[in-house]
Amino acid sequence: MVGDSESEASWREFFAWLKSRDLRGVDIVVSDSHTGLVRALQTQFQGCTWQRCQTHFMRNVLDACPKSMQEEICKRVRAILNAPDMNTARLLRDQFVEEYAQRAPKVTQVFEDGFDDATAVLALPERYRRRLRTTNSVERLNEEIRRRERVIRIFPNRESVIRLVGALLMEIDEAWMTGHRYLNMEAFLQWRQEQENTPYHEDKVARLSR
C-alpha cells in the first residue's frame, strides 16, 4: 500500500487495510516511537503488546546525554536492556535513576519515560527477544526495497510502485517460506497457549491499553 505520509491517519488506514485482508491475532508490534504510528496501533490492534525498538530508544537516550557521559550511559542502559528478566531490569533501572537523577536529569527522564515500552520484550520467551527487541528485520527489508527503487528513481504512477515493490516482496516471502526461517513461531505459539491457561497478572506483559 502506498501512503503520502507517516501520519496517524495514514497508519490507521494501512492497519485497517491489513485487517480487511484478514490479518488477525496480532500479539506484538515492534516499531520506533513515532507518535502517529503508536496511536494508530492503539486504535486498530487493541490489547497487543508494543515493543519500542531498543536501537531507536538508545539513540533517544544518548541524544539527551552530554558527550562526556555517552559511553558510560550507553553501557549502563545496554546492561538494563539485556537483563535476563523484568525483575532484574527494574532493579537495574532503579539503581540507574538513583545514580544519574542529579548528574544527568534529562537522560534519566527520557530513560524512565521509555523503559516499560523498551523492555516489553522481556515478557516473551528468551529465544525470541533478540530478534523482536529492534526493528532490524524491517530495516533490512526496507534497504532491499530502496536498493531496487533507486534504479527507477521516479515512478510514473502509484500502480508502478505497487508492481515493482509487490514483485520484490513476493520473492522475499517465497525465500522466507522455503529457506531458513528468521523466526520459527512454533515454540512461541506453545508458550502463548500456556500463558492463556495461566491467571493473568500485571507483570506478564506491557500492554498498549495501560
Could you name the key traits of this structure?
mainly alpha, 210 residues, 10 helices, single chain, 2 strands, two-stranded parallel sheet, 3 domains
- Strands side by side in the biggest sheet: 1-2
In DSSP terms (H or I, runs of 4 or more residues), the helix count works out at 10
How many domains? Answer: 3
Largest sheet: 2 strands, parallel
Count all strands and give the number: 2
User: What is the 3D shape?
Assistant: globular
| DSSP strand content | under 5%
Give the helices and strands as they follow along the chain.
HEHEHHHHHHHH
User: How helical, in percent, are the residues?
Assistant: 55-70%
Mean pLDDT: 89
Low-confidence stretches: 200-210
Q: State the distance separating the first and last CA atoms.
A: 30 Å
> Structural class of the secondary structure composition?
mainly alpha
Radius of gyration, in angstroms, nearest whole number: 19 Å
What can be said about this structure in brief?
The chain has 210 residues and is mostly helical. The protein has helices at 8-20, 35-44, 54-63, 70-81, 86-100, 105-118, 126-132, 136-152, 158-178, 186-196, and strands at residues 28-31, 49-52.
